[in-house]
Specification:
The protein is mainly alpha-helical. It contains 5 helices and 3 strands, in the order H-H-E-H-H-E-E-H.
Amino acid sequence: MEGCVNLLGVMRKYPNMNAVRLQLLLVIYGKSKTTLDDIQRLTGLSRNTAISHLRVLETDGLVSKQRGRKMRYRVTESGEEVVRAIKEARTTNTGNQLEDTNQIQR
């Protein structure tokens, strides 16, 4: 339950967050220095849709971009806070599901 409470607090801190932006954040977190091509390939989003959501994440301070031959995105410290909260909530939820399953089997 604690992980879920932490996730709710983080989500309140970033009211622009939605499922697509969470997915983008997790994709970028999982592959450091992610290019727009990587994002499109891994999410199936169109270029314009991805850019639109990335701008919101950048404005919220969750991702930053590095200019070069190809634009690369990385998760900031604030973005890592959101990812940690998601992982905690998943772990807590999975643990609760396992406890419920064990109780049913008894």
